[in-house]
Amino acid sequence: MPRLSNIQRERAIGMLNTGTSVTDVARVMGCSRQTIHNFQTCLHQTGTTADRPRPGRPRVTSRAQDRQIVLRHLRNRFVTATSTGNELFGGRVTAQTIRNRLRSARLHARRFHRRQHFLWARRHLRWTQRDWNRVVFRDESRFTLTFADGRVRVWRRRGERNAQCCIQEVDRFGGGRVMVWGGINGHARSRLIVIQGNLNAAAYRDQVLVPELLPFMAAHGPGLTFQQDNARPHTANLTTNFLRDAGINVMEWPSRSPDLNPIEHVWDVLGRQLHQVRNPPQNLQELGAMLVQIWRRIPQAVFRCKNIVLSMQTNGTLAPTEAYFTTYSSIYRYYFNPLSCN
């Protein structure tokens, strides 16, 4: 609720002096009844309705300067709070103060990844099925040793809440996890690689690119495009130089866009089948071996372009609308709404 100005407070006191009730004054002033009552009490105790001195650091910006800050960011929505503090106040006002003033004006900083996703989809709007077939979609995923989704039910009688037979210990951190790497395209899939240790640029090159990616790209013909996200091991100079020297064409990929990758549906299938095994793995080594085994057992139809990659198919005969993408995920329809690019 906004604070009343001194003029509004004096007006409220004048209305009270003429016999108007506190409730009616609060309704006219657009504030709570307690606020008017506090003004009246303050007047009787101190002889004025002005605020009492309050502890805390005084404001470093005036009302006019606050309006200047807001106006600057309304004229240029991409200017940073730090640059505003330096240019308007010579660095005397911190970036956090600038952000506080902007939030008071209901301006909030937002990342513009959605626009980047939209532009990426625009660039690939007229890709045909053959174009998508030549893309090798790949990603890493983590799987935990134990799985608990919060939906565990226990059958018990009244009064057996704390009975030992009705209590199940659950490891909140999953009992350890393994990271795996896999890739698919319109006609084939790679092997599932279990990453050993931490995944950095050197490990990514030595455990994934050299033993698996290069043979896969060579075996399925020239002209393939390699897709990878913008994780640090993927964009490091070591990785970038290696892919360039190997002559591998890398697809430009927007930031923070896991839902654009159709291999996410494969990870979902892999996780569901892992949780359905009768004899679950007991350690990380067994977990990695079981993931590789399940990956091999998944029918090829799941990986086929028809089911996943062709979910991103285009139709050049349609107008440039959301109908271009009949997607496995609804994210393309979301980004192709013109209103979402504001």
Short summary:
Residues 134-283 form the Tc1-like transposase DDE domain. With 342 residues, the chain is of the alpha/beta class.
Overview of the molecule:
The chain is α/β, with parallel strands linked by helices and 342 residues long. The chain has 3 domains: 6-46; 63-104; 127-148 and 176-313, 2-Layer Sandwich (Nucleotidyltransferase, domain 5). It has helices at residues 6-17, 22-29, 33-46, 63-75, 81-89, 95-104, 113-123, 129-133, 201-219, 232-235, 237-245, 263-274, 284-297, 300-303, 331-335, and strands at residues 135-144, 177-184, 193-195, 225-227, 249-250. A hairpin with an 8-residue loop joins strand 2 and strand 3. The radius of gyration is 31 Å and the shape is elongated. This is Tc1-like transposase DDE domain-containing protein. It holds the Pfam family DDE_3.
Descriptive tags:
5-stranded mixed β-sheet; elongated; 8% strand; 342 residues; alpha/beta; 15 helices; Homeodomain-like_sf; Nucleotidyltransferase, domain 5; nucleic acid binding; single chain; Transposase_5; disordered C terminus
